[in-house]
Design goal:
Blueprint lengths: L7 H14 L3 H5 L6 H6 L8 E5 L5 H9 L4 E6 L2 H14 L5 E5 L7 H5 L4 E7 L8 H10 L1 E12 L7 H12 L9 H12 L2 E7 L4 E7 L1
Parallel strand pairs: 1-2, 1-4, 2-3, 4-5
Antiparallel strand pairs: 5-7, 6-7
GO molecular function: methyltransferase activity
Pfam family, one: Methyltransf_25
Organism: Mesorhizobium retamae
């Protein structure tokens, strides 16, 4: 989807949320966006392989992926033009602009070939973005459709805090609502359904007593 075709309301909302927050996003989020580094360490990108992040935000995850997989080709898309400003700066600081491509697009409906000149990717990951995307189920389907044969989709996001105290769950829920974040209660069911539909396998892990969920769908 081109920038002109982006859903205007959500794009404007995200730009409004992150216009100033992007400057402190990585510093503050490291304390509660748990499981991101575990996701990156588990990507196991093949030599010279390609990896796409849906909802790449500030570029923090792509930069860490580049360090861990020095010959990987990196791609990222985000609906927020404000976040992409930070992402491009991060990519430049890391010195990986030559093997990284960024684009503004909707993660629920994107044309990777038009955006990047690449139709399919060895790895695709979504880190704490599904909980902010309206119609997030379409992002799962779009990600699986963009996988190369033998590829895998990796997802980390807020869980339902199943084994944490009720007071903690209430406080976290109230805090997340301030940032338009809604943990997806049906995440596992949607991943199971999409995996079955596409003939893929699913592994699903609860982290930190259900604070976060980490899933991998392998084609």
């Amino acid at each position: 989807m081109s920038a002109q075709g982006l859903p205007a309301n959500h794009a404007a909302l995200m730009d409004g949320v992150y216009r100033w927050q992007r400057h402190v996003y990585d510093l503050t989020r490291k304390y509660y966006l748990l499981g991101r580094d575990k996701l990156i360490s588990g990507l196991d990108i093949p030599a010279g392989g390609s990896v796409l992040e849906l909802g790449c935000g500030t570029g923090r995850n792509l930069a860490l992926t580049a360090r861990r997989y020095p010959d990987a080709r990196l791609y990222g898309l985000d609906i927020s033009a404000e976040m992409l400003v930070s992402a491009r700066a991060a990519i430049a600081r890391e010195g990986i602009a030559g093997r990284t491509s960024l684009a503004r697009a909707d993660a629920t409906d994107f044309d990777a070939l038009a955006l990047f000149g690449v139709a399919h990717f060895d790895r695709i990951f979504v880190s704490y973005s599904l909980s902010m995307i309206p119609g997030w189920e379409k992002t799962v389907a779009a990600g699986l459709a963009a996988l190369a044969p033998g590829g895998s989709l990796h997802v980390v996001d807020f869980g339902q805090q199943e084994r944490l105290p009720n007071w903690f769950r209430s406080l976290l829920s109230a805090w997340l609502r301030k940032f338009h974040v809604s943990p997806r209660e049906s995440l596992r069911e949607v991943l199971e359904s999409e995996s079955a539909r596409s003939g893929a396998s699913l592994s699903f892990e609860r982290l930190y007593r259900g604070y976060a969920w980490l899933a991998v769908v392998r084609r």
